[in-house]
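Severity: low
Component: inverse-folding endpoint
Summary: output formatting inconsistent between runs
Steps to reproduce: submit the following structure tokens with default settings.
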């Protein structure tokens, strides 16, 4: 996995940022009607294919199967309904969100392509029922995850990357720091440079 994992709510933003050299992206399009969601996913798929980037679709595993998107991200709630066997048979990899030890144990039992831990720092993206996890939790998660890649998410900035990677994260997922940047293109270039 690339060390820089860009998460975007729109394919339009991916169209602007992926050509800069972003290699790992997630389309996290929430609360769209099915036809608009499908259009966003197809747009993101085309952008990523044109630039050699890996597209990960958030939540909508059935749509991923339909469109031939080979990677999905699932939350813990998604595990209750997702057909992991169907994903495996189709060659679709999946990453899983975790926030506590029970969720990590459940996730690792599913043999995921990665596990995500968050929020590492306070985040502005959404209200979280979990307190910031911090560096000690990154170390503990990596010890448990072993060879499974560990994605850190939540409140990350390029300035915080050295300590996050030193604690054991393999990859840094970024949402707010780029989406709310005055210049998302310049900020993405900073992230690419910081993770190379």
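Observed output (run 2 of 3):
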């Amino acid at each position: 996995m690339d060390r820089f994992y860009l998460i975007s709510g729109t394919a339009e933003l991916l169209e602007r940022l992926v050509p800069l050299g972003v290699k790992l992206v997630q389309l996290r399009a929430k609360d769209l009607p099915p036809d608009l969601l499908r259009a966003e996913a197809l747009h993101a798929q085309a952008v990523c294919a044109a630039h050699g980037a890996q597209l990960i679709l958030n939540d909508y595993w059935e749509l991923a199967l339909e469109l031939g998107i080979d990677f999905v991200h699932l939350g813990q709630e998604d595990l209750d309904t997702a057909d992991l066997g169907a994903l495996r048979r189709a060659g679709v990899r999946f990453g899983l969100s975790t926030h506590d030890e029970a969720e990590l144990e459940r996730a690792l039992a599913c043999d995921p392509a990665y596990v995500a831990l968050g929020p590492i720092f306070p985040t502005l993206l959404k209200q979280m029922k979990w307190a910031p996890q911090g560096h000690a939790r990154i170390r503990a998660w990596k010890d448990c995850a072993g060879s499974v890649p560990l994605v850190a998410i939540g409140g990350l900035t390029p300035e915080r990357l050295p300590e996050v990677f030193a604690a054991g994260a393999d990859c840094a997922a970024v949402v707010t720091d780029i989406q709310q940047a005055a210049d998302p293109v310049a900020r993405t270039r900073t992230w690419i440079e910081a993770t190379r």
